[in-house]
User: Fold this.
Amino acid sequence: MEYTPKKFSTDDLVAAWKDGSLKINEEYQRGASWTQAQMQGLIDSIFRQYPIPPIFLHQIRAKGLGGLESTRYEIVDGQQRIRALADFHSDKWPLLEAYDKKLRLPNSLRKLPAPWGKRRFSELDEQLRNELKAKEIDVFVIRELVDADEVRDLFIRLQSGTALSRQQIRDAWPGTVGPFIERLAGKLNRAPAVTLFRQIDRRGTRSEEESDDYDSDRQFCAQLLCLFLARERDPLSQQSIGANELDKVYHENTTFDTNGEAAKRFQDILKITSDVFLVAFTETAGKKRIKLKFRKLDVIAAFLLIQDLSRNSLFKFEKSFTQKLFAHILADRDVAGAGKSTSGPAIAKYYDEWRAKIIEEIGIRLDPKRLFDEAEKQIIYQRAQGKCGICSEPVDPSDAEYDHFPLPHTLGGKTIVENARLVHAACHPRGQVQANATADEAQVREELYGRERLIKKWAQNIFDLRKKAGKEVTMDWATEKAREAFE
Assistant:
């Protein structure tokens, strides 16, 4: 194979694509596969002067009518990039603004000027248009082949590199979260600082090509951090921990203070959780049984319980607590779990049921007074200045509910005004209707409405409240607020 390295401007590449002299070979090439956000990201990268990977073309010469020689090019690698350039030149979509969450950027870079944001090609000022058209891309032009199959072999080799896992991409993200997670959960030859991850059942979470033994451990540590941060803001949060939610933890916390109070609390809770499972692990090994690995949902439940209990200044994490908790975990191993789940509501449901079995065993006594009296409600209402603690909108007294916050009643939270907040009935997923419902009624309601129907109902409520108050509002904004309250 003989090839020549060249440089072509984006304007030349787009013109060749449009006039048909630059094509794909449909026998082995796929069609368009990039999302619009990926294409927008490429153009944004060009404007930010980021290097663009080279394109590989196969030059094909042939004699045409009258013996005249014609030249065309087949794209071996780079089809999606060329399509993105051509679509943008054709004004098919505008670029993303720096603050648009669809554009993957560290928060520190979102503050930099990006005058191309929200503009189509025709809307760019002349300087930016010319800059894009003149941008040169490295291109390898294959001129001669020993065998025709060399092109397909090259295509396969270019596509067969081991792609980074989603977690490895997070590891590379700028900011402090990546190194913080790596120190706690390990990476390559660096052993984890926390023993907890050695006790977890990792079946089904590792790929055959995983080259780093700690990949799945870092992902699980990030999931725990995601839950922790959400529940620090709101102890009743039903935070999901899927791939997109984990991406946000890295993207939105690039300046996370790893020496701050939140980081210290997270590590303290990890340490206590680690101690519980280490004792449980040692207990099983000491009895010459098979050394057990523990379900992630059980580890999550124990972690959340310890986080919740740590808010109670009167609760002490003594040896007796560790013993009772690990005994409960071992005794409960035969009970069917909720399975593999990253859904916030599913995790919350599992945790609530898991916690209810043990809460009194570990010394938590529930306040026999479940509801706030009228005098307390009046104080809570006035202190909140009549505004909801979730959506911040005015609350009509007839629509008011009074929530145990920050320490839930189910964790020993006292029914006193110091542990309360005002909320709308529709905003609060654990309102009075749910508190008084039986388990069967709650299950029927969940099946009847479903997650999205509840969100729609709350969104309408928020929309109506703002309209009634004469404030500007859109249903998209109200839906976003409702979804945040649900999760």
Q: What stands out?
A: Residues 12 and 103 are 27 Å apart (CA to CA). The chain has 18 helices and seven strands.
